[in-house]
Amino acid sequence: MTFGPLVLKLAAFARLSQDDRAALDRLARNQRDIAPRRDLIREGDQPRFVHLIVDGWACRYKTLPDGRRQIVAIFLPGDLCDLNVYVLREMDHSVGAITRLRVADICREDMAGLTEAHPRITQALWWHELVTAAIQREWTLNLGQRSAYERIAHLLCELFMRLQLVDLVRADSCDFPMTQNDIADATGLTPVHVNRTLQELRRAGLIVLQGRTLTIPDLKALQAAALFSANYLHLGRDGRHLDAND
């Protein structure tokens, strides 16, 4: 059986059994497609489902009354958009598609049943939420302290490593559908500044961007330029010593 990106991601945090993996795949049965640049859910909407990104890229964002947008998170295949969102009366942010999306809508009852029957999955989901919070802290540090060069290099490192986790990197290359406007909205820069900074990274030989493909010839060199430490992604399977049902 070929397991989906959610299984690959959660397996980094707990030793999942075959039954656990099959249960996670069944969780993604109610799927629908969202067109590129359309909203999956908008600020003010009443949330009814946990949304799982099965395929494609999305973003969490906030807007000001004059239309200015801040991207506060990027969602990749295997990501859950707000694990407990259904406790809210209304959304305080929007989630929009960057590319065409395949999304699974998971109801509250299915999520509750899964966590009650599969303690290892529950453990992995705790780690998922801890890593989500850690990523948010790192993005705050980016905006407050890193230079434009470091911010963009850091964003590229993070997305590349998160894609590696779900087997979406080929050698030193991955899909990269974000526009310069998207990068600007995620890093607090102008599109012009983003363009200049990407050119600097290219001239330094740290990245190659061709169409929708990002190539990183030397990941360690890009990490050094970004002042990047992957510890906040917790990819070392730190939670396995807490596994249930050992």
Features:
246 residues; alpha+beta; Jelly Rolls; Arc Repressor Mutant, subunit A; 2 domains; four-stranded antiparallel sheet; 8 helices; 12 strands; 20% strand; globular; disordered C terminus; Helix-turn-helix domain-containing protein; WH_DNA-bd_sf; cNMP-bd_dom
Topology:
Blueprint: H1 5-10, H2 18-27, E1 31-34, E2 39-41, E3 50-55, E4 58-63, E5 69-75, E6 80-81, E7 94-97, E8 101-106, H3 108-117, H4 119-145, H5 148-165, E9 169-170, E10 173-175, H6 180-187, H7 191-203, E11 208-210, E12 213-215, H8 219-226
Antiparallel strand pairs: 1-8, 2-7, 3-6, 3-8, 4-5, 4-7, 9-10, 10-12, 11-12
Helix pairs in contact: 3-4, 5-7, 5-8, 6-7
What does this structure look like?
- Residues 146-220 form the HTH crp-type domain.
- InterPro entries: cNMP-bd_dom, cNMP-bd_dom_sf, Env_Response_Regulators, HTH_CRP, RmlC-like_jellyroll, WH-like_DNA-bd_sf, WH_DNA-bd_sf.
- It comes from Sphingomonas changnyeongensis.
- This protein folds into two domains: 5-132, Jelly Rolls; 147-233, Winged helix-like DNA-binding domain superfamily/Winged helix DNA-binding domain (Arc Repressor Mutant, subunit A, Orthogonal Bundle).
- Helices cover 41% and strands 20% of the residues.
- It contains eight helices and twelve strands.
- A hairpin with a 2-residue loop joins strand 11 and strand 12.
- Residues 239-246 have low confidence and may be disordered.
